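Re: Re: token formats

Sure, here are both.
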Amino acid sequence: MSNITEKIQEELKQARETCEVSGTGSKECAAAWDAVEELQAESSHQKQSKGKNSLEVYCDDNPDAAECRLYED
């Protein structure tokens, strides 16, 4: 996770420099900030990914166990 955080910081710095040189209304500036937003979105998605809880792991290993039965209405 720290790798993507470092990459975001690098892209933020690059975006600021690009906008300073090219102007805030330039295509280059917009593209640089788009890259920052994409990395931030990826970081957010990675944080949302959750691992399985102990029951889910158990049921993956023992699908026929009573605790893992699924009943349909």
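Second one below.
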Amino acid sequence: MTSLKIHSIESAPEESKVFLEKSKKAYGMVPGLHGVLAGAPQLLEAYQTLHELFTQSSFNKEELTVVWQAINVEHACHYCVPAHTGIAKSMGVDDAITEALRNETPLENEKLEALRTMTLSIVRNRGNVSQEELDAFYAAGYEERQVLEIILGLSQKVISNYTNHIANTPVDKGAEKYAWSKENVEK
């Protein structure tokens, strides 16, 4: 049961309707998360804008997936982990990457693992990372720009993960087959 209203285009505040139409055009339907975010038009706009900006960052599809899913799993988001599993599949990301992220096991690719490690350090330490952590991240082939872009991705995920926790947003039909919960993580 949800604790926040999931709006349709028809029930949404007038200011949100244009953003829900954009979601429907992009996804062929209005994702439940977007329906919840529509309750605060500026929040829905911010989420969509952050999503667009993050997908335009210097990260490739595997790196986007690592940042998104590392945060989703750390925040135990029952909605976003399945959604981003489906998104990763649609982007052609190797299932081994997705499964390692979902199961919190190290990634085989050392550079991607360095990205996952830095992302988790930023999340867990609320941005208080050490110079040694930064040096290890840079040694893996990343630069200052990518540290800042992780923060951009985190900004997007805080909006979605926290909203889904409060709303208990039901997983969208297309992502139900990728259901996930922190309690069921294979280790």
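Residues 59-184 form a domain with the AhpD-like fold (CATH 1.20.1290.10). Residues 78 and 180 are 6 Å apart (CA to CA).
- S.
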